[in-house]
Amino acid sequence: MPRSRTISRLSGVYRREHRVLALECGTDLCDIRVLLVCSWCACTLSDRLNRPLTLGEKILYGHLDKPKEQDIKRGESYLNLRPDRVAMQDATAQMAVLQFISSGLPRTAVPTTIHCDHLIAAKAGGSQDLAVASSENKEVYDFLASAGAKYGMGFWRPGSGIIHQIILENYAFPGGLMIGTDSHTPNAGGLGMCAIGVGGADAVDVMANLPWELKAPNYIGVNLTGKLNGWASPKDVILKLAGLLTVKGGTGFIVEYFGPGVDSISCTGMATICNMGAEIGATTSVFPYNKRMHDYLVATGRSGIAREADLFGNLLRSDANASYDKVVNIDLSTLEPHLNGPFTPDLAHPISEFGKALHANGWPEELSVGLIGSCTNSSYEDMSRSASIARQALDHGLKVMCCLFISLSLSLSHSSLSLSHSLCCCCCWWWWQHRPRASLRSLLARSKSVQPSPRTVR
Fold this sequence. Notes:
- Helix content is 34%, strand content 16%.
- The chain is of the alpha/beta class and 458 residues long.
- It has two domains: 3-333, Aconitase, domain 3 (2-Layer Sandwich); 347-452, Aconitase, domain 3 (2-Layer Sandwich), CATH 3.30.499.
- The strands form six sheets. Strands 5-3-2-6-7 form a five-stranded parallel beta sheet. Strands 11-10-9-12 form a four-stranded parallel beta sheet, covered by helices on one side. The protein has a three-stranded parallel beta sheet with strand order 4-17-19.
- The termini are far apart.
């Protein structure tokens, strides 16, 4: 099939699927440029660069505003891009929406959604905490809901789910480019999308139909070989990578995963890895399209995108012999479960070495509380794994020695689990007041972040 017809066909299906999603938030698609990862072929970029491209380059260059006029040099040029959509959480959306209103435009230029998940504090349980948040933040929620209705922005009310998981389950698609006003927006990279965290002003530019500027990133390639086994999980990949690269090692880079080991990781597992790429400062992280993504798209009601992506999957991965600025090799077969921290996410400890580090540093040996949840670790995969461990412990007559906090990400996960004390909150404002003021405490969190309440003394 001629490349031009390939582009046209992919464009058609993405436009059809985007129309369904956009109608939910009232966005007029007439002004949207839903470009494909291969659209750079329609101009002269292929001849100009004269080299194989990484997946990140395909996506970014496929969303250039004026590709023929763009200077393209890794780490030097500034790219003017046209993202496909915008996502905002309630804490950062307030000022962004006010700025958009001042533009005088009647509707947003691209599909835009607002997600109310950051202003909820987890303290007493799902229903109680949601009621408190709805009361305390009523003015904010009412403003965001009414502004969204007027300007064509989708509004996800408090309790509907965590922004990044909602995006993954509803809006993310392979080859797309999205910006979001939260540092963990790269979660959508688990579906082959370049999703980048930005400030509110950047979001307003895109909503107002202005090109968005990004310094052309460099690229780190992570070659995954082998297969996860034993107690190792997808998040151990990024925990190990954080130990190798440090919290600054990904700054100015897009991290791309490739290699035979990719197919052993679930779509939600890939999303977790991309989500936590923010902890190493990466611009974003992305995985190539594969059957795991196909299955996830079908399971979440987007079989149309899955079918077309299957036909042109070669466009949704890096070219053969694509060049990376750095390459990291990770053998999944020998990867141990990791515990990172305390105090910094790049202090990586393979589980076999954690005991030594515990004694050497004088850290508390008693576990005071456990936490699983937030946008990073509250998929059905994570929760079912934790539930299995709990059932095995009960079967062996073991008793719980400390409390466990749980925060689910979205109703799709919630509906599959029998958990009554859960809450859809993203930033984890956990009210933890079970210890005397002067005591040292040890918290084991399978979550992206934990913020103590103002009443909690560190």
